[in-house]
Write a sequence for this structure.
């Protein structure tokens, strides 16, 4: 079921602008992490406190139609705000190209997390630096089709 409701853009101007440009262009513009050339996806959640629609970009870590959502927050000691949104309501939308689609995120552990972490670091090697910068194990969510 598509996520609807009042959208509240990120307070970080560059994030809000990237999301808007990505969506307006059907993913043909603003589709990489700034000038790195590394592809991104847009993730839509519902704020666990506000109930408002939230959107943000993450690295595109895809394997066989599933995506890893890495809660790195640049190696900060705490998880990003969107982590709590996914824990509270794992029903999200991902846009990887022209149209967003429904999916369900689940936190992975053990061997499954290790496999997805390896895929994530292959896409964005800086994740390994982020892990070294923090004492917490960086959470990794994996998406499954919404109809599973």
């Amino acid at each position: 079921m598509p996520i609807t409701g009042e959208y509240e853009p990120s307070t970080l101007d560059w994030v809000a602008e990237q999301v808007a440009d990505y969506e307006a262009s059907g993913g043909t513009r603003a589709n990489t992490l700034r000038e790195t050339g590394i592809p991104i996806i847009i993730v839509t959640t519902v704020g666990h406190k506000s109930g408002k629609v939230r959107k943000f970009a993450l690295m595109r870590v895809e394997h066989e139609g599933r995506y890893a959502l890495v809660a790195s927050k640049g190696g900060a000691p705490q998880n990003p705000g969107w982590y709590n949104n996914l824990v509270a309501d794992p029903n999200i939308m991902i846009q990887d190209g022209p149209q967003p689609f429904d999916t369900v995120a689940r936190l992975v552990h053990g061997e499954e997390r290790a496999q997805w972490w390896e895929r994530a670091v292959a896409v964005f090697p800086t994740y390994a630096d982020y892990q070294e910068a923090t004492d917490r194990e960086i959470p990794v969510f994996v998406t499954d089709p919404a109809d599973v």
